[in-house]
Amino acid sequence: MGEQKVNGQGVSDEQIQAWADEAEAGYDVSRLRRRGRPSAGEGPGRVVPVRLDARTLAALNERAQAEGLMNRSEAIRAAVRAWAHVACGSTTRQYLDLLT
User: What phi and psi, each to the nearest 5 degrees, are found at residue 11?
Assistant: First the structure.
């Protein structure tokens, strides 16, 4: 068998056997790194395309930065949550606090 490589680095047969032994023994699933996007709320999210004009998008980006939000999607989710829950007495700040 040819030389095995991982990320361009040579890997010995002993290391490969050690990894195989570790895998066969089983992994603690709670310690594995999660992959994929983090949850955007309760349960799986759905993509909802929306078109915004340049002025609205600029205002959204400015407000997101001022609020310390990580990205445009977080800002849109915070705004929608605040708008959708106004009748319940929730405030925008309460929803922004949930995101952090």
Answer: -130, 130
Please, what is the Cα angle at 67 between 39 and 54, to 5 degrees?
A: 90
Distance CA(43)–CA(27), nearest Å, equals 25
pTM over 0.85: no
Q: Which two tokens stand for residue 72?
A: 């445009």
Contacts (Cβ under 8 Å, ≥6 apart) of 33: none
- The size of the chain, in residues, is 100
| pLDDT tens per residue across span 40-65 | 667 777 888 999 999 999 999 999 89
Measured CA to CA, the distance from residue 74 to residue 82 in angstroms comes to 12
Per-residue CA distances from 77 to 61, 63, 85, 93, 100 (Å): 13, 13, 12, 13, 13
- Give the residue among 65, 61, 43 at the shortest CA–CA distance from 52: 61
Angstrom distance (rounded) from CA 69 to CA 61: 9
Q: Which residue has the tokens 């609020």?
A: 67
